[in-house]
Write a structure and sequence with these properties.
This protein is of the alpha/beta class. Helix 4 packs parallel to helix 7 and helix 7 crosses helix 8. It starts with 10 loop residues before the first strand and ends in a 5-residue tail after the last strand.
Length: 314
């Protein structure tokens, strides 16, 4: 779409996350097909912004700028300098492509490690959340939190850009497999909580991939719902932040009515503010599986709930 409109001296900046060498091997030939010998410039600067804080992070985060040549880098820097208050780091275009993939892959691997710690914690009978907090007291350790799986359009996707084009990505591929398998672990724990209940009804709290956003891309909730339905469970979903989802969304009261187990999938702040006594009488069986460790578990247990947390010995 851009190619036919390029003029001499124009600059094209690619922000989308792409496999290394995409700018030079794919984008550049397409643009040259329209422009022949015309001189134009090409740069890559991967965005670093999360939903809910996009403008703030576009302005304040540091940026990486890579270009096909020195002139491309210089022109791109002049564009970003007009609004970026963070540091601007200059490099070649392939390195800039690689940096963004490394950032998200690091987080994916770290989450996979935390999820393995959670499963090992359950096997040996300790609270993995407490152990992770204590391990993070070490000045050079920063383990992320376990969870129901990894979602979003970056962390759950970007590592494949590296592993699909390399024979040296064993850890990256394994981390993806671990995080993609966690919804199975969640359903296994839910199954144990309702094993004596005929035709159970499961309530999903949160279908967004992360807390306090409406983004459902690659959300682990989808796989958890499908796995629950494969088990023969009836499933109802509640998420006050999401308006459109491939499964029907209900009000909280509708979602928990006659429910046998609530699975907290998303760490929305509003879930921490739910008073357990307000929905207690609506449920058939008072089971709740907190995959994010965000609830006041003592309050829920005092109201007669059987509470379970992934990675927790309780």
């Amino acid at each position: 779409m851009i190619g036919p409109h390029l003029s001499e001296g124009d600059l094209v900046i690619l922000e989308s996350t792409v496999p290394p060498a995409t700018s030079r091997n794919l984008i550049l030939p397409i643009l040259e097909r329209y422009n022949g010998e015309s001189d134009f410039y090409l740069a890559h600067s991967p965005e670093r912004a999360i939903p809910g804080k996009t403008i703030e992070e576009m302005r304040n985060n540091s940026r990486i700028i890579g270009g096909l040549d020195e002139k491309s880098v210089k022109l791109a820097k002049s564009v970003y300098s007009s609004f970026v208050e963070g540091e601007i780091h200059l490099t070649d275009i392939k390195t800039a492509e690689m940096v963004k993939l490394m950032e998200n892959t690091f987080r994916d691997v770290n989450i996979a490690l935390a999820n393995e710690f959670a499963q090992i914690g359950e096997e040996i009978g300790i609270d993995a959340w407490e152990a992770i907090d204590l391990a993070n007291e070490h000045p050079r350790v920063d383990i992320l939190n376990p969870g129901p799986g990894v979602g979003g359009h970056c962390i759950s996707v970007d590592p494949w850009f590296l592993s699909s084009n390399s024979t040296s990505s064993k850890m990256i591929s394994l981390a993806r497999e671990i995080n993609d398998s966690i919804p199975n672990f969640v359903i296994k724990k839910a199954r144990e909580m309702i094993k004596d209940i005929d035709e159970p009804l499961i309530t999903i709290f949160g279908v967004a991939y992360k807390g306090d956003v409406d983004d459902t891309r690659e959300t682990p909730a989808k796989k958890i719902i499908k796995l629950a339905e494969n088990e023969g469970f009836e499933v109802r979903c509640y998420d006050p932040h999401v308006n459109n989802f491939e499964y029907e969304l209900h009000s909280m009261e509708e979602a928990v009515k006659d429910s046998d187990c609530i699975i907290v999938v998303t760490n929305h702040k509003c879930f921490t503010e739910i008073k357990p006594e307000e929905i207690r009488e609506l449920m058939n069986n008072k089971n709740i599986l907190d995959t994010r460790d965000i609830l006041d578990h003592k309050s829920w247990m005092n109201n007669g709930y059987n509470v379970s947390v992934i990675g927790n010995k309780k």
